[in-house]
Amino acid sequence: MFQSFVYFVCFYQGDRAGICVTQFDPKQLERGLVCATGVLQVINAAIMKVTKINYFKGTVATKAKFHITVAHETVMGRGTFFGLYEGTDDQDSSTDFDFNREYLYQDELLNLAESKKAGDGEAPVKLPTAQFALVEFEKPIICGKNFLVIGSKLDTDIHSNTCRLAFHGRLIEPVVDPNYAAAFLPRLRVYKDKQREGIVERMVDEYSVICRNLFKKETNLETFVGLKVMLSSGEQGMIEGGFGQSGKIKVRIPGTSYWLLL
């Protein structure tokens, strides 16, 4: 008595599939892609949602070059990593990429599992809820949205006992325009978290103080108007503008009498 079995395998767009065909000369077959019209595009860069591979022990650094495998192509690409952190905007809890959201620039792609373990029992570690990469290819490739992406260091010695696969993810925003630096990149809301320290020089009134040593005298202070300033006593103020010509600024502490801060 014979039994027949039917197996169902779920594939995502961009995944590879293998089919066994008997009595077929592989020399008669050329590699290609089968798709509907408009599905595939020739792209020069892409936004990807990525995850660092646990077994890769090296640093996946921003601006470093990796071998990027998408569909049937492997090309060199340079990645810039950024993360979605809680409290960076007023959006929902979704971890999907959105041009209207703000992302924090990262010097490297984090291994979230290891970072959480390292922070156990210590002060809470600020980790992203999702990580993304802008990957710029050295030459255009043909692919589409949701394709599987693998970043590797294939130039590593094959005889070394180390994993050469650095990260993996999905391509979520292809960039077709070769002039993407001017046309596409300004749409990305990626910022760097920077901190400066200064000194409160004197009080102007009950709610305002003059600070120095935060900026140089040639700095365009209009760029920083409206940004928050944290005092060592914990109160928050806001930069109102410059004071004089030496780089000093006027900071207002709204809703709190400065006499209470002394």
Percent of residues in helical segments?
under 10%
The CATH superfamily title of the largest domain: Translation factors
Number of domains: 2
Order of helices and strands: EEEEHEEEHEEEEEE
Distance between the termini: 92 Å
How large is the count of helical segments?
2
- By secondary-structure content and strand pairing, the structural class works out as mainly beta
Low-confidence stretches: 258-262
Largest beta sheet: strand ordering: 1-5-3-2-6-7
CATH names the topology of the largest domain as: Elongation Factor Tu (Ef-tu), domain 3
- CATH class (first level) name of the largest domain: Mainly Beta
Supply Rg: 26 Å
CATH architectural group of the largest domain: Beta Barrel
Report strand %.
35-45%
Q: What is the strand tally?
A: 13
Report on the biggest sheet: 6 strands, antiparallel, barrel
